[in-house]
Design brief:
heterodimer; A: alpha+beta; 4 domains; twelve-stranded mixed sheet; six-stranded mixed barrel; 14% strand; B: alpha+beta; Arc Repressor Mutant, subunit A
Chain lengths: 892, 89
């Protein structure tokens, strides 16, 4: 061992050793020269003579160097060559081990690649760790007046900016421009917002101070993809006028290709314009801004939280119920928080798969070492020490792991593409997922660990064998054989424990997925097609025209062949935006601060309930004659009825929506119907009170109202029900919209089934991955127990033969083999139950409608594994029974 | 025979073997390096009688032991070969 280190050290001490060598050679030449001089030669001649008799100096140096440093390498090369040959000698073993390792390493590389891209990569801003969000409950929007007070009164932040959702229509500038109008996703940001992120535009500039004032805010910064797609990527775009919602904006900058903002909400943003806060600067009710901030240098998150707590505490006293639950949170937490746990759990699961693969390869290696006992003994007899033997076996392990890793890398490339393609759309930062240097490093590290994991125990075992006994007994080291079989039993048991834990994880996820699937949406999503028609910036946006357009469009759609019903709403349930309004109920005292009644605010066109088949359980639906001349009406959902009028019929009762245009005459709405509860957003959240007002009675929705709220109401989500596959009617529906005005952009065209499907996309994805890991684990464990029992039977052929010839029956032999195999499997399952019961608690966040210790899953997984083990043991057991005593006794 | 430098080792070998064995430095160096790596000899810089600088090699404890062993082994081997040859003849 010391020699080994010396040699390695000499590699690093190259120049020092080289100098030493030169010095020694010089000294010898000097001594020789002295001798020649004593014999009477002149100093010059003596020097020449010395050189001559010394021989080729460079050749000597070369020999010296080789001996000095390359011996260990030579050993290594020898070991590699030897290992390679011996792997080629046993192609079955090599192929089996390679496949197991490639699957394990490949799957680990892929999942780590996703974790690396999504979770580990820093956000692409300057000092991203200093960026935080300041939001209600961590993610909820903030009112303008609160933002302004926070910005001005806090001390912990270098800058605090805000962003507001904005979705303008871009229309062609002139007649020569033939591109269709398009509905874009954008953000209105305060002037300091983009500079705070510390990313320079790749073209032009960002907003300057004062450009967010009313009247001077018609400037826009484009994202790189929008610039490429809509403007052909030309530099002359800077200074160009474009029309957004019918108004002229000047393009002042283009952001770099990788730039994304905001990273966790409004993620499809493609352009940014200055937000003017003047109109809403005194509002503390309408929460619509997302607030971002950069911590001052030397200010910690804890200090910032304390600072904000002081500010909001003060404001809360001044304006009760306006500054509750304000959370300062690292920006990255908001971006990756929702996927971090599932991803880390998947990484753990796939790590288990690799461990099982390691255990499998380890007992393949063990079986192989027993077969090579003689070879090992011969090598030991020829002078190979224990360390040398272990090194030899580990070299083989590393070689095998290397081959497995190379194959695994190929698998990983393919697998990663599939993963990214199959991953649910709402997993953030999937575009960053790739096999980069860090992933490769991970791969190399995992490969090394794998090699040690499956190679060390067999190598020690091999080297521990008693040499003289082995040679004497003709290949049966009995004592070490017993130890080896204990090790094998342990390996099988741990495989089963790991596989069981994985199966529990998979089983729980499958159960929650089916629980999710069986959740009623409240309406019938089949055969419904939805799309957003946006009128902003078109002729249809004008007061008076919009009302006629919406009605005519729905009438015309309903008349299309194959369509049964058509309706419209501001925001769809499941996947749509959620606006809420506080409200008051007639003849009830005003609620105390903090106890306001609140409901999700929906604006519907007639036909909505019929189209969605969302049942009206009491009263009637909204009709076309619920127009501005008729009394104002509202439909509430069952949840709202229970909460606002518990124990009495809400029909005919009146409520008032708050937070509309201040100063206008209060508009009391009469409840005319109660609808069933529809799922709001995802499938998990419980129903929430909802109010549905008539679009025809909502002037802001029709472009007729005054005030700010109408700016965000320039679109209608159209829903149509068809008698056949709704995707087939999409072209007709699109043509019908275009027949009104070609400048009307249509977006988010999808079936309601697709919308519901994407709400369960993440659990479905997790289910597929975990289920395939579980299946893989089970197969590997089965192969493992099969291999071990098969080997045990072949080792005991003679013993079994003797037993049979002495009169042992089939059942006794079967019982012997089964009891040995099943004992190992059962031990593993028992250990697995304990491990799974501990680990499944970590999954709580991912589960729905099922407990982490769900007995059904635990019993099911045990049954599945026991049956698998039985099946795997059955094959060697059959072989054992069929052993012919005569033949068995003749073997060896 | 205390520590020797490699030139004198070569000269000594040549002398003892009565000129039958001449090891040039190209053969001797790697051998010395290997022995040193194996911990059987150790080297120090010193002065020759002619007051020249040279590297001197000396046997270590381990080296003496292995010398004994190797010598024994060699004698056995040589004796065995001798025996085989004489019996076979």
């Amino acid at each position: 061992m010391r020699r080994f280190f010396q040699r390695i050290a000499s590699l690093f001490r190259g120049t020092q050793a080289e100098n030493e060598l030169q010095r020694e050679i010089d000294s010898h030449l000097r001594i020789l020269q002295d001798q020649f001089e004593q014999r009477g030669l002149s100093p010059t001649d003596a020097k020449l003579a010395a050189r001559r008799s010394y021989g080729n100096v460079e050749l000597i140096k070369e020999l010296h160097r080789e001996t000095r440093s390359y011996l260990w390498m030579e050993n290594l090369l020898k070991d590699i060559g030897y290992g390679w040959r011996s792997l080629l000698h046993t192609p079955g073993f090599t192929a089996g081990a390679t496949i197991a390792l490639a699957l394990g390493i490949g799957a680990n590389t892929d999942i780590f690649g996703v974790v690396n891209g999504v979770v580990l990569q820093p956000l692409a801003y300057r000092d991203p760790d200093r960026l935080v969000t300041v939001l209600h409950n961590g993610t909820g929007p903030v009112a303008t007046a609160n933002y302004i007070d926070w910005r001005d009164q806090s001390h912990a932040f270098e800058a605090m900016g805000a962003a507001d959702y904005w979705s303008p229509n871009i229309s062609s500038n002139d007649r020569s421009d033939s591109r269709p109008a398009e509905h874009l996703f954008g953000l209105k940001v305060t002037q300091n917002m983009l500079p705070m992120l510390g990313v320079q535009p790749s073209l032009g500039r960002l907003f300057a101070r004062g450009e967010d004032r009313e009247g001077s805010n018609h400037e826009v910064v484009l994202s790189y993809p929008l610039w490429q797609r809509r403007f052909g990527g030309g530099r002359e775009v800077i200074g160009k006028l474009i029309r957004l919602d019918g108004e002229a904006y000047t393009v002042i900058g283009v952001m770099p290709p990788a730039f994304k903002f905001a990273p966790f909400w409004a993620t499809h943003t493609e352009l940014w314009a200055p937000a003017t806060l003047e109109a809403t600067m005194h509002e503390r009710g309408g929460n619509h801004l997302r607030v971002f901030a950069r911590l001052k240098p030397n200010v910690t998150l804890t200090q910032a939280r304390a600072d904000m707590a002081a500010v909001t505490g003060r404001l809360e006293k001044e304006y009760p119920a306006t500054n509750r639950n304000v959370v300062v949170r690292p920006l990255k937490e908001n971006v990756v928080g929702s996927v971090e746990t599932p991803l880390l759990m998947l990484l753990g699961a796939v790590g288990f798969v690799l461990l099982i693969a390691c255990a499998n390869v380890a007992h393949l290696m063990l079986a192989r070492t027993s077969d090579r006992q003689r070879e090992i003994a011969v090598r030991a007899a020829l002078g190979a020490g224990k360390p040398r033997l272990i090194a030899q076996f580990l070299t083989e392990s590393f070689l095998l792991a290397g081959i497995g890793a190379a194959a695994g890398l190929l698998l990983a490339f393919g697998g990663m593409k599939a993963l990214v393609a199959l991953a649910p759309a709402d997993v953030p930062r999937l575009e960053l997922v790739s096999i980069d240097a860090r992933v490769l490093l991970f791969l190399i590290g995992v490969t090394g660990l794998t090699a040690v994991a499956f190679g060390l125990a067999p190598a020690m075992q091999a080297a521990a064998g008693n040499l003289s006994e082995t040679l004497k007994e003709g290949g049966r080291g009995d004592s070490s054989g017993k130890r080896r079989s204990r090790l094998r039993g342990f390996l099988v048991a741990s495989e089963f424990a790991l596989a069981f834990t994985l199966l529990i994880g998979a089983g729980l996820i499958v159960r929650s997925f089916y629980a999710l699937q069986s959740v009623k949406t409240g309406f019938n999503p089949h055969n419904v097609l939805t799309m957003v028609v946006s009128v902003a910036g078109t002729n249809e946006a004008d007061a008076g025209r919009r009302r006629i357009f919406y009605q005519a469009l729905l009438e015309k759609l309903k008349a299309l062949p194959g369509l049964e019903a058509a309706g419209g709403i501001n925001h769809l349930p499941i996947g749509g935006d959620l606006w809420d309004r506080n409200l008051e109920i007639e003849r009830r005292p005003k609620p105390r601060p903090g106890e306001e009644l609140n409901a999700v605010y929906r604006i519907v066109m007639p036909g909505y309930f019929e189209t969605m088949q969302l049942p009206i359980v009491k009263g009637r639906a909204i009709a076309y004659n619920d127009d501005p001349k008729a009394p104002a009406v509202v439909i509430i959902n069952a949840r709202a009825a229970d909460r606002f009028w518990p124990g009495e019929s809400p029909i005919g009762k009146r409520l008032l929506l708050l937070g509309g245009n201040e100063g206008s005459r209060p508009n009391w709405l009469t409840v005319i119907g109660v609808s069933a509860n529809a799922r709001l957003d995802d499938m998990v959240s419980p129903p929430y009170p909802e109010v549905y007002v008539a679009a025809l009675q909502t002037p802001e929705f029709m472009g007729e109202g005054s005030g700010d709220i109408g700016v965000h109401m320039t679109y209608l989500t159209v829903v149509v029900r068809s008698s056949q596959n709704p995707a087939n009617v999409a072209p007709q529906v699109r043509r019908t919209v275009e027949s009104f005005d070609r400048a009307l952009p249509i977006s988010q065209l999808q079936t309601m089934d697709e919308a519901v499907g994407s709400a369960t996309a993440q659990p479905r994805f997790e289910m597929w991955l975990l289920a395939s890991f579980g299946a893989l684990a089970m197969i590997l464990a089965a192969v493992g127990i099969y291999g071990v029992m098969n080997y045990a039977v072949s080792q005991r052929t003679r013993e079994i033969g003797i037993r049979i010839s002495l009169g042992a029956g089939r059942s006794e032999i079967l019982q012997m083999v089964f009891s040995e195999g099943m004992r190992q499997a059962a031990a593993g399952i028992v250990a697995g139950v304990v491990a799974a019961a501990l680990l499944s608690r970590l999954m709580v966040q991912m589960l729905f409608g099922v407990q982490p210790t769900d007995p059904f899953t635990f019993i099911g997984a045990s049954a599945v594994l026991l049956v698998t083990a039985l099946a795997a043991v059955a094959i060697p057991a059959r072989r054992a029974v069929r052993i012919e005593p005569v033949i068995a006794l003749r073997t060896e | 025979m205390g520590p020797q430098h490699s030139y004198s080792i070569a000269a000594r070998l040549q002398q003892v073997s009565e000129d039958l064995l001449y090891l040039n430095q190209g053969t001797l160096y790697p051998a010395l390096i290997r022995l040193e790596q194996q911990g059987r000899i150790k080297s120090t810089w010193g002065k020759t009688e002619g007051n020249r600088e040279a590297k001197f090699y000396a046997l270590t404890k381990k080296g003496e032991q292995s010398l004994k062993q190797e010598a024994l082994r060699w004698r056995r081997m040589a004796g065995l070969v001798e025996k085989l040859l004489s019996e076979g003849a």
